[in-house]
Amino acid sequence: MTGQVWWYVARATGMIAWALLAATVVWGLLLTTRLAGRKPAPAWLLDLHRFLGGLAAAFTALHLAGLLADDYVSFDLVDILVPGAASWKPGAVALGVVSLYLLAAVEATSLAMRHIPRRRWHAVHLASYVLFWSATFHFLLAGTDAGNPLARVAVDVVAALVVFLTLVRILSPRARPRPRPRPRPAPPLGPSPGCSSIRVAARVASQAGSPRTIRRAPATATGGKP
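The structure corresponding to this sequence follows.
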């Protein structure tokens, strides 16, 4: 038992890494479809997606450390970094190595998302689909616990959910970007209301004081002349 501790560590961390990776992919698909609610998604949902991806990377590192420290199935750096170099199930281990590089690329571009073009980040992020399936087949072919009935049910359910959400994302119509409103032209410059009222008052005063506006007073009742 003591001599196989690292082997159990590698097995446990590998299953946890796959579960976290599956949760990251499913959560990302929910965010990119209308099934998660209105768009855009709140910031904490995006943060949770990134947090799950970071945890998946951390447990993947622990999985590799357990493989290197274990002497039950001997692995060295070449075995876990070069596809096909391992003598134990080379095809299945090669899928794990490919998954490792895909995970590193996705996480690195996600951390540097603000410093790289969005198209490049999106192109690399699409590799998450390939990452999920390569990691899933790596778990099924190389995982010692892949024969566990609970593990097989979990893999089947998650795989079906990923396929369903992927089809929803592909077949659902994309929202067209709203056109930007055109700026309204500025109104022509003219006299302010205060100036116009002053001019009207001055015109009325000038007309009231002109000789044409002064009328003769009517004659008095005694008949006198004015």
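Residues 2-171 form one domain.
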